[in-house]
Write a sequence for this structure.
């Protein structure tokens, strides 16, 4: 179900985030005090407005209080990000995400009520490191620091072979790697058989240790 989302701050991170949310069919109100940044978002979001994201009257006039989610993407403008985040919670928004630049900034954002604090650069570095270790990874999601779910393209040496033959079936020697889903064209095979043969074009969703997955897909 589409959400009504307000993004405050249209630097590289905020602009990309706002545009992506709009492409995913959400109603997006993008706000920045820089008219040039606002103009660059016209047609890429539902509404793009030049305004002060730290002015409560202005934000209420724009209907921000009626939004489902607010994302404060001001980044290095620490004072403005704190004020804006506090205003979002004061206006009663149910879910506020704020971007932090360091641990102290994050602590303040948490204390004033941010529901989620993100470190885009840090998270991007971790994601890039994982993709570098496992080059066939399309995307992944952490479960813990050492385990997660990876969506991967099987390397050439796996094609035409059974899942059990390429080490993707949990057993006594390899208890931490398992294929949850095999996607073949438009078909999704849940919990595929150990004897399922990997075809060209297949995509695997694998759960397990990051290091074990990296090892399995590098062999």
């Amino acid at each position: 179900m589409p959400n009504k989302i307000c993004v405050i701050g249209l630097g590289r991170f905020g602009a990309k985030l706002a545009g992506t949310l709009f492409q995913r069919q959400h109603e997006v109100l993008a706000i920045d005090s820089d008219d040039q940044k606002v103009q660059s978002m016209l047609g890429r979001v539902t509404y793009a407005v030049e305004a002060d994201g730290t002015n409560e009257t202005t934000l209420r006039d724009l209907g921000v209080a009626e939004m489902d989610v607010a994302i404060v993407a001001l980044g290095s403008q620490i004072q403005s990000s704190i004020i804006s985040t506090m205003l979002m919670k004061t206006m009663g928004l149910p879910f506020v995400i704020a971007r932090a630049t360091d641990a102290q900034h994050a602590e303040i954002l948490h204390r004033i009520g941010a529901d989620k604090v993100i470190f885009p650069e840090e998270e991007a570095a971790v994601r890039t490191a994982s993709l570098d270790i496992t080059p066939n990874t399309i995307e992944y999601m952490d479960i813990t620091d050492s385990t997660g779910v990876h969506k991967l393209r099987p390397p050439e040496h796996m094609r035409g072979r059974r899942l059990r033959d390429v080490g993707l079936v949990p057993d006594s020697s390899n208890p931490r790697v398992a294929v949850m889903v095999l996607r073949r064209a438009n078909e999704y095979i849940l919990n595929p058989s150990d004897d399922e043969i990997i075809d060209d074009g297949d995509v695997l969703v694998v759960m397990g240790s990051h290091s074990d997955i990296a090892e399995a897909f590098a062999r």
Remarks:
- The first strand starts at residue 4 and ends at 8.
- The mean pLDDT is 86.
- The first helix runs from residue 12 to 23.
- The radius of gyration is 22 Å.
